[in-house]
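Many introductory courses stop at the sequence. We go one step further.
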Amino acid sequence: MKQIFINLPVRDVQKSMNFYAQLGFSNKTLFSDDEQKCMVWSEQIYVMLMSNDLFQKYSKKSIPDIKQQVAASFSLPVKSLNQVHEMIDAGLKAGGTEPFPMIDEGFMQVRKIVDLDGHTWDFMYLDMTKFENQKINLED
């Protein structure tokens, strides 16, 4: 099975773990300790919330101010538009921010949330029946 571990530097590991739990991630204690928490989205997708000190120890690079700069953005599809709304609303209650209103492309709806440290996540619903009917010109 192929898996991905996304490593994110965070200022407060416990607060970040609580935020991601509100979005629907679960904590995998096997890969967690005081300096990092492993948050599971699915059997294939894991997010490692690492203290800034631990992250820097492994990267050997300075950590940019993610609240002021974009280093990456992550997108996760969900099963329904209602689930998109539920997750974003829960994330907002947990301290996240929504930088702008939902994007509605007809076949795809996306809402963004920015976590406590400035990392951006898109939660999107793809209506595959509408998506398959779209004429997309990839050469544009």
